Amino acid sequence: MTRRIPGLRFSVAVGVVVALVGIGSGVGVAAWTGATTKGAAITAATAATSATGIAGLAATYKPGLPGVSAAMLTDTAPVTVSNTGSAPLSYSLTATGGSAALGNQVTLQVWKAGATCDVSTVVPSTATTGNLTTPPALPADANSAAPGTGLSLCFRSSVTGTYSAAGGLSTTPTVAVVGTVGTNWSASASASFTQTAGFNWYEIQHDFSAKCVDANGGSTAAGTNLILFPCKPLAVNTNQSYRFSQVGTTAFYRIYIGTGSSAGPVWEAASAIAGSAVQLNTIDTGTTTKSNNQQWSVVQHGDAGDFRIVNKNSSLCLTMTASTDNTVFTVTACGTSLVNTNTAYRAQHFGFVEIPS
């Protein structure tokens, strides 16, 4: 006879459940939740560059005088560009400021420097060309640099065209080397320099008298005679200093006195007749007889360093047969003697002493 014991079934069930929870599949399980924080930083590549040597393009150009002094029409400067950032850079040149009047007449060439970068260096075919107003692109073999590397460049500036158009002008541009990454990042390094188209000034010494060409009374008024006078200490802007301005591409020059301006006065033979006085007068740039009377050639004749000054209109030579102060210079027929002790020879011969400027 089966006898129910009250509560037994419930107790057994509870025990089974406890046992299952306790032993399960032999593994006890517990669950936790938590969070940890990990630090992070983002570093962008930097664009940075430096350049040295651009200021070396500072220059004073001079036209020279054939047979007397050499022209100085070019300037050469080594330029070093360094990529000091952490990104590769593509490079270009820009120019700001300065005077386009001269800047457009000064050619700028750039090439990858070789063993030398000086006035004697021959410009290679790989050079690029622009001017001081619009610099050239950098050459294909020297227009980019990896981080920590650089470029060695050679810059050459040159006055082009006729010097008379550039003479007396100056410009002070700022030239920059610009390194870029893509289209948004850039870095630049720049320098300013001044270039001037100056002049050669000369004291003109007469061979026979050992005195100088002077303007009577120090005047620059029209009609002032050129006279003989003892040479003064070398100085620009006196009545014994002269510059020669080439007329176009001809062999003739207008001769300006040191106290004059670009508008004159200049030397002028009073006429084409032998014995005519040589005077100062306002400049005439036309094709008139007066203009031709204001043009002169400088011709070596005889010994080295001996020159005759010949008038274009008359083909007569500047002459001084005396050694007395204040005697007026004239034009007379050019002699043929090459004997430097001959009085007539020495009367028409002159030496040029360049005045420091």
What does it look like?
The chain is elongated and about 85 Å long. The chain is 10% helix and 36% strand. It has helices spanning 8-23, 100-103, 163-166, 289-293, 343-347, and strands at 49-52, 59-61, 74-83, 89-96, 106-112, 128-131, 144-145, 150-159, 170-171, 174-181, 185-192, 195-197, 202-206, 212-215, 226-229, 242-246, 253-261, 264-269, 276-281, 296-300, 307-311, 317-319, 330-332, 350-354. A six-stranded antiparallel beta sheet has the order 16-17-18-19-23-22. It has a five-stranded antiparallel beta sheet with strand order 1-3-8-5-6, with no helix packed on it. It is built from five helices and 24 strands. A hairpin with a 3-residue loop joins strand 10 and strand 11 (185-192). By secondary structure, the protein is mostly beta strands. The chain folds into two domains: 49-197, Immunoglobulin-like; 202-354, Trefoil (Trefoil (Acidic Fibroblast Growth Factor, subunit A)), CATH 2.80.10. The termini are far apart.
List the helices and strands and how they pair.
Elements (H helix, E strand, L loop, with lengths): L7 H16 L25 E4 L6 E3 L12 E10 L5 E8 L3 H4 L2 E7 L15 E4 L12 E2 L4 E10 L3 H4 L3 E2 L2 E8 L3 E8 L2 E3 L4 E5 L5 E4 L10 E4 L12 E5 L6 E9 L2 E6 L6 E6 L7 H5 L2 E5 L6 E5 L5 E3 L10 E3 L10 H5 L2 E5 L3
